[in-house]
Amino acid sequence: MFRNQYDQDVLTWSPQGRLHQVEYAMEAVKQGGAAVGCKNNDYAVLATLKRAASELSSSQRKLFKIDDNVGIAISGLTADGTAATKALRGDCTTHKFTFESQVDVGRLAARVADKAQISTQRSGSRPSGVGMLIAGIDDQGCHLFQTCPSGNLYNHVAVAIGARSQASKTYLEKNIIKLEALSLDELVIVALRALKEAAVDPISDKSCSVAVVGRGTPFKILQTEDLASILETLDLDSQ
């Protein structure tokens, strides 16, 4: 990545057919904290690594509840993710007030992708430097979507984004056949094992966070005590 005459604004194409500012935004996601998502027909799980600016500061949140049936994990610029979270909550509130029902997860994810894509073709704005994993449940079942600063939208069974996420993807690819038969607790363990592959240091209840959603389970971020007990099980299994 370096400065050149074709990255002064988002509207300028390079001779190779590239939009450098969009690529820079994608790079911000790749260098962000790792986030993992996996799902089956009944449940969806999100897991993220927490990052702190220094040993003197608290870690930044990477998991956000949007509504009772949907939440997100982010990687990249946390401030951009926080702004997107507020917009998503507003969209859910507007939909619930207008139609007296919860918004479809796919429609919500498409709105995120559309807004990101608009920023890639308008002068005076920059692409959002955040990637999202959107997990939720609606009448069609559980969903897991990934959005990118480029405006691309992907529907996944399991996915990982952020720094060193390739190791997590490899683990998920090896275990993707097992996901459908897993219970919620087992699905959480799979997500944490995948997240562990992307971590430099051993994961703990202070260095990671997990959220779940599914049938009969509204979106919730696990408390530290619950996460600690699951990590103890994970440690025992690895021994």
Task: Please explain how this structure is put together.
- The protein has helices spanning 20-30, 78-99, 105-118, 165-175, 184-198, 224-238, and strands spanning 35-39, 43-49, 63-67, 70-76, 130-138, 141-147, 153-155, 158-161, 208-214, 217-221.
- The protein is of the alpha+beta class.
- The chain has a five-stranded antiparallel sheet. A five-stranded antiparallel sheet has the order 3-4-5-6-7.
- A hairpin with a 2-residue loop joins strand 9 (208-214) and strand 10.
- Helix 4 runs antiparallel to helix 5.
- It is globular and about 55 Å long.
Q: What does the secondary structure layout of this molecule look like, with pairings?
A:
Layout: H1 20-30, E1 35-39, E2 43-49, E3 63-67, E4 70-76, H2 78-99, H3 105-118, E5 130-138, E6 141-147, E7 153-155, E8 158-161, H4 165-175, H5 184-198, E9 208-214, E10 217-221, H6 224-238
Antiparallel strand pairs: 1-2, 1-8, 2-9, 3-4, 4-5, 5-6, 6-7, 9-10
Helix pairs in contact: 4-5
Average of pLDDT:
91
Helix percent band: 25-40%
Given the C-alpha coordinates, what overall shape results?
A: globular
E-strand count: 10
Backbone structural class: alpha+beta
Specify the number of helices: 6
Alpha carbon gyration radius: 18 Å
User: Which percent band covers the strand fraction?
Assistant: 15-25%
Order of helices and strands: HEEEEHHEEEEHHEEH
Q: In terms of per-residue confidence, which ranges show pLDDT below 50 for 5 or more consecutive residues?
A: none
Largest sheet: 5 strands, antiparallel
Strand order of the largest sheet: 8-1-2-9-10
Distance between the termini: 42 Å
